[in-house]
Design a protein that fits this description.
The chain is α/β, with parallel strands linked by helices. It has three domains: about 55-175 and about 335-380 and about 470-520, FAD/NAD(P)-binding domain, CATH 3.50.50; about 190-335 and about 520-575, FAD/NAD(P)-binding domain (3-Layer(bba) Sandwich); about 385-465, Recoverin, domain 1. Helices cover about 35% and strands about 20% of the residues. The strands form nine sheets. Strands 9-8-7-4-3-10-22 form a seven-stranded mixed beta sheet. The protein is globular and about 90 Å long.
Length: about 575
């Protein structure tokens, strides 16, 4: 026993032996055994000496939002030196590109949702989640004020404040009504899972009402008139899904009213799917006409009541007309949330439509605040604003002229800092800035080219015309979240060894390379098991095979094997049994 007591004291006094396991077999009549195991903590844990490394305080990162940008950031954050707090009224991630499918039961709502707590629980990073809504952001005191979304009585403790070292704003955006009267009160939106579920209920409501024997045919026509406002990808896909739902499923269940159903798509511009190739636009418009979808372009909604929509023709003298309707879905773009608008006013960005950030996603006018996704837009520096600084940085011998050799030493940094120059060269079919310099000097040989500041300014004067804002898509938001997480993972490393371009208006280098969006293409499902795709390299694909490509891509992009299996299962169920039209 004396040996066992000494061994026990050794375990406690020397934590390095904590994983030592001693098994001793005691001989005797009955035989026996003893298992000894020690924890790594000494007896007096409270008074234990902690190394300076252990005392290093973790930086607190507050993430606002659990959409594409916020979730992508959380999934890719791997540095355990951060204490992460996620605040969002939505405790799940939703695969929003499939929301139009949820509205008609092609895919169930639960199939596209993944709990945030489940997504982050296995990470080495300390992550906590609070179901609350952000009310305000104070960049001076570095705090955010929040309110719990729980309806239960919290004894006056629903409001709370959270301080931060780094703030990541990924709150998304809200539907933009353009202050059109009656839209907020009478229209459905399609931004959240709850919106899709309400639309699904409303569709069934309309058919059940129209089936009642007490209504006139005129009233039935009004109730079964479905209007979609907005000819972008979401509006077009919903109109196509609704058409398939009606013609493949509902007409069998409501045969007496099938000839009274009408679907109208309103678009203020001349064509739908303006961001796509013209071949896709033409095919989509032709298909909608063949399917009997009433497509009205050049029509702007000016007023909405509970039974009637007023539109203004943007041509033909601006004639105003009205149409009765039963259900209205509004999908015309996005706008900033109220809390973002208030924050923009605090940091002198009140005139912008979204939070302005630099190329590293850091909010302009702040310190350690980052914004990504639909709530933000990157404000790319203009070449003409920095042309004098670029010239000065390249002119190392201070001769007042730039040679080809001097420009070649700086060209990679310039192209990385100002991507619009590369696009400008591509459109001009020039291989490099050197070719642009040669063009500016006429027939001069490459070795003899020298440009003064005015000639250099003239050569790049049109480069800023290539600047474009990034689209507010899930693809952009996800890439931004991945990029920012990578920056946070290597923050300390890049402080010591910067990897970004040189500072044009200062000394040294930027810590990181600026964010660059890579476009992998976009889809537009058009109904009838047909879709259109515009892929990199200006490759356009239209038809049934593209729909199967859409299935494979959207299945592979699910955030978990659970949601992937559920989505594929829903598609299979729909092929075999049709869509579910019951009221649940």
């Amino acid at each position: 026993m004396a040996f066992y007591e000494k061994a026990s004291r050794a375990f406690y006094n020397y934590p390095s032996l904590s994983k030592l396991l001693v098994v001793v077999t005691v001989s005797g009549g009955a035989g026996g055994g003893l298992l000894a195991y020690s924890d790594s903590k000494p007896h007096n844990v409270e008074n234990a000496v902690i190394s300076p490394e252990a005392e290093k305080k973790k930086k607190k990162v507050v993430v606002l939002g659990t959409g594409w940008a916020g979730t992508s950031f959380l999934k890719n954050l791997k540095n355990p030196d951060y204490d992460v707090h996620v605040i969002s009224p939505r405790n799940y991630f939703a695969f929003t590109p499939l929301l139009p499918s949820v509205t008609v039961g092609t895919v169930e709502a639960r199939s596209i949702c993944e709990p945030i707590r489940k997504m982050v629980k296995k990470k080495d990073v300390s992550v906590s989640y609070w179901e609350a809504e952000c009310l305000s952001i104070d960049p001076v005191s570095k705090t955010v004020k929040c309110r719990s979304t729980q309806n239960a009585d919290l004894n006056g403790k629903a409001d709370f404040s959270v301080d931060y070292d780094y703030l990541v704003i990924a709150m998304g955006a809200r539907s933009n009504t353009f202050n059109t009267p009656g839209v907020e009160e009478n229209a459905h939106f399609l931004k959240e899972v709850e919106d899709a579920q309400k639309i699904r209920q409303s569709i069934i409501d309309c058919f059940e009402k129209a089936a009642l024997p007490t209504l006139s045919d005129e009233e039935r026509k009004r109730i079964l008139h479905f209007v979609v406002v907005g000819g972008g990808p979401t509006g077009v896909e919903f109109a196509a899904e609704l058409h398939d739902f009606v013609n493949e499923d509902l007409v069998r269940l409501y045969p007496k009213v099938k000839d009274l159903v009408k679907i109208t798509l309103l678009e203020a511009t001349d064509h739908i799917l303006n961001m796509f190739d013209k071949r896709i636009t033409a095919f989509a418009e032709d298909k909608f006409h063949r399917d009997g979808i009433n497509l009205q372009t050049g029509s702007m909604v000016v007023n909405v009541t509970n039974k009637e929509i007023s539109t203004k023709a943007l041509k033909n003298g601006g004639t105003i007309s009205s149409m009765p309707y039963g259900m209205l879905v509004w999908s015309t773009g996005i706008g900033a949330r109220p809390v973002i608008m208030d924050f923009m006013k605090q940091i002198n960005q009140g005139k912008r439509r979204a939070l302005g950030t630099d190329e590293w996603l850091r909010v302009e006018g702040t310190g350690e605040i980052y914004a990504l996704g639909d709530c933000a837009t990157i404000v790319q520096r203009k070449v003409m604003e920095d042309i004098a600084d670029i010239f000065k940085k390249a002119d190392k011998d201070n001769s007042g002229t730039l040679t080809v050799k001097e420009m070649q030493e700086l060209v990679d940094d310039i192209l990385e800092r100002y991507p619009q120059i590369e696009l400008y060269l591509k459109n001009r079919k020039l291989k490099s800035i050197v070719d642009l310099m040669k063009e500016a000097k006429g027939d001069a040989t490459k070795e003899s080219i020298e440009l003064n500041i005015e000639e250099f300014r003239s050569a790049l004067s049109q480069a800023d015309s290539q600047m474009k804002n990034l689209p507010a898509t899930a693809q952009v938001a996800a890439q931004q979240g991945t990029y920012l997480a990578d920056c946070f993972n290597r923050m300390e490393e890049c402080e010591k060894n910067p990897e970004g371009p040189i500072r044009i208006r200062g000394e040294g280098q930027h810590r990181f390379k600026p964010f660059r969006y890579r476009h992998f293409g976009q889809f537009a499902p058009l109904g009838g098991e047909q879709a259109a795709a515009q892929l990199p390299g200006d490759w356009v694909s239209i038809g049934h095979s593209t729909q199967w490509l859409w299935y494979s891509v959207y299945a592979s992009k699910q955030v978990s094997w659970r949601t992937r299996a559920l989505v594929v299962g829903d598609w299979s169920r729909r092929f075999m049994f049709g869509r579910d039209s019951s009221r649940i």
